[in-house]
Amino acid sequence: MSKAVTRTLTTSPGLLASLDPLLREWLPRQRWFAGKGRPVTGFSLVAATELLPPGGKLGLYHLLVRAHQALTPVPGAPEQPADCYQLLIGDREALPPRLAPALIGHVAKGPLAGRTVYDALYDTRPTELLLEALRTGARIGGLRFERAAGQDIRSGLVPRLVTSEQSNSSVVYGDTFILKLLRRVVPGVNPDLELPLALAREGCDRVPAPTAWIGAELAGDSYVLGVLQPFVQGAADGWELALRELAKGEDFAAAARALGRATAEVHTALARTLPTVTLGHTQVRQLVDGMVGRLEAAAQAVPALRPYAPGLRSAFAALADLAAEGCTWTAQRIHGDLHLGQCLRSPAGQWWLIDFEGEPSKPLAERRMPQPPVRDVAGMLRSFDYAAHSADPPIPGWADTCRAAYCSGYAQVSGVDPRTDPVLLRAYETDKAIYEVVYEARHRPDWLPVPLSAISRLAADTGTPPSSTPLSPPSPRRPSP
Ligand SMILES: Nc1ncnc2c1ncn2[C@@H]1O[C@H](COP(=O)(O)OP(=O)(O)O)[C@@H](O)[C@H]1O
Ligand SMILES: O=P(O)(O)O[C@H]1O[C@H](CO)[C@@H](O[C@H]2O[C@H](CO)[C@@H](O)[C@H](O)[C@H]2O)[C@H](O)[C@H]1O
């Protein structure tokens, strides 16, 4: 295997043409394929790296491939910028039964004619090879396997592919490490590596510290392609845990408070180590314009949203009004896509935050911009609401109790209770609920009533916190008189 990881790169120009008809059929069926609903019109090769040579028992290729797609399912329509996907393709004479779920197809012509190609992340030898490359700090063509200083990786850990629904693909090694291979990749700094590395430097142990990562200098661009981190053994995610407690009729307040503290620990460390900025009138105006734009687009797409649009606009207008009065807010790097499914709790009761990629559909530059930390808080508050709606029979007040506990835990560590800035919180909760309405209408129409019930509450809300809430001074900085 160590011979394989030092092999020099050879690109295979004929390879993609021979895979083209198979990938057209296979790629859109993958959970992580981001362009669902638009036919793939062709592929172009960004980079090909041969990890094991063709013609042997097993050939292995690392590919970055652009999938060109029509803008709408109308033939001849103009094309959007094509997404680039990371693929690890194996070729064998035939697949053993255990690899049946990995099948891409049988190649008819070209350099691999007669061979069977498959998603090699399902296979032991290719995934062992990746870990070995990370362990030894290999360079293979433009691929760079890097290890964090002082981190050791034991050899011989047994790999298994994580089969749950994911936006990317992950392999667990001997319950010791988990390697996330990013599927849709863009050049530049990936926050899923950048932020956990920054947090590790800062000594924040609410996030698994990256042990190693796969980077690449390919076709003139640099990429982050994968991150290896310690596997939190026996962990359950916050969504599973919340549903479990709900099914037992138990409240989740202590766990929500601890999660609030964990979120604040992460925010505080990020604010210490990465730049923060002040958002004044102009920046808040832009932020509000973005929120209003998303509302208008969502109301176009989902008619059920339209009756609430005036009330929702008022949530955004209230924020613009505060900014016009001279209020300012601090923005910093945040998680960017926080919900219960992004939090793991270890059997010892420790919370961990994972998946710092931000909303993958947003451009990288936007995902890396400083934002008010309340945005993460709003995401988590929405999640408690979602969990409560899954309970049958519903437990009155369950979500409110969690939401309050989460905010008070957050305040314990950060010194700022998010509820003291109700206008900002309402604006972000509204923005998130609108996003969820579109998401559910597209992906899970049965779930649409969940965000819609929040929409009806938020549209009617005046933004005033309940009088029983103990308040610390409001968090927007008000102009001096
Ligand atoms: N460090 C970890 N320890 C244990 N399980 C993890 C760890 N990181 C991720 N996971 C598991 O893998 C799943 C997917 O990870 P995530 O980073 O959210 O990937 P994606 O971006 O593909 O959604 C998580 O929901 C969790 O179950
Ligand atoms: O996990 P992803 O980054 O792919 O996020 C998408 O899918 C989520 C659902 O899996 C969706 O989250 C919404 O539903 C969750 C319950 O299933 C809930 O906990 C979240 O609060 C709610 O937003 C997310 O919006 C979407 O981007």
TrEMBL record:
Residues 467-481 have a biased composition (Pro residues). Its EC number is 2.7.1.175. The lineage of its organism: Bacteria, Bacillati, Actinomycetota, Actinomycetes, Kitasatosporales. It catalyses: D-maltose + ATP = alpha-maltose 1-phosphate + ADP + H(+). GO terms for biological process: glycogen biosynthetic process. Pfam families: Mak_N_cap. Keywords: ATP-binding, Carbohydrate metabolism, Glycogen biosynthesis, Glycogen metabolism, Kinase, Nucleotide-binding, Transferase. Residues 26-123 form the Maltokinase N-terminal cap domain. Residues 458-481 are annotated as: Disordered. GO terms for molecular function: ATP binding; kinase activity. This is Maltokinase.
